[in-house]
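S.,

Sequence below, as promised.
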Amino acid sequence: MNLKKLVYSKKKIFGTCLLILNLLSFLLYLTVKKSNIVILNDNFDQKRIEEKPNSSKQLSENYSQSLKSVNYAIKETNDSKKNQCALIPEKLVGRLKIDTNSSVTLKQIESENKNLNITNGGMWSPSDCIARHKVAIIIPFRNRDINLKIFLRHIHPILCRQQIDYGIFIIEPIQNITFNRGLLMNIGFIESLNKTNQRWDCFVFHDVDLIPEDDRNIYSCPEQPRHMSSAVSTFHYRLPYETIFGGVSALTKDQMKKVNGYSNMYFGWGGFSVKMMISEQE
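The prediction came back faster than expected:
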């Protein structure tokens, strides 16, 4: 074989390889184009082109938002490989013994619950299945440190056994205004959504001095608003009056929006729950 033929053969082989590589690259592009991550990035790129940011700060903010979108897409991709959690969680134990030891410390609570892998901010979701419920626990709070410690000590293990995707939000007012529970719960509803990219579809509004005595009382939102503290030890496990809706109440996001949240007009204790009950009946 002479030199010209050898060069021609090499060129032909090289050209064929280049064609194959281009074809594979195109097929890979079509495949990746359908993925959530690239679609989210495409949205970011288009937004970046349209806005034409003029500062490095704006570029940094857009890039951070893009990374956040990618993280959510990756989580959705991983979750797609899991099954939904059981309708009745297997690790429920039923009746509970409540320890009201007032000397418990936050460090002790963290030590007891370290194996639960609760993230900063009091959030948790099951790692082995897809949670059926995404629940924000909203707690209006003022000067109840002991109650809060006892509550956190018990509620985290309960919610983990229920396999709920949840977050706990403590809403505390500034010190120089009269306590307004309804206002704090409305703030908690809005901020819990804003801080987590609209993560929650169920909201449990919870007094800090109430703890479930049975973990089969699932923290979720059925089709209708639910009063979860209908049997309280202080009232000998009986309703003090039929229209009570305070203590612990569960509503969906749509239900909260439909009734326009709790009334902001009731300062001090009482009144807001009856107003909410009337709003729901209407």
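Confidence is low (pLDDT under 50) at residues 1-8, 27-60, 66-74, 274-278.

Coffee later?
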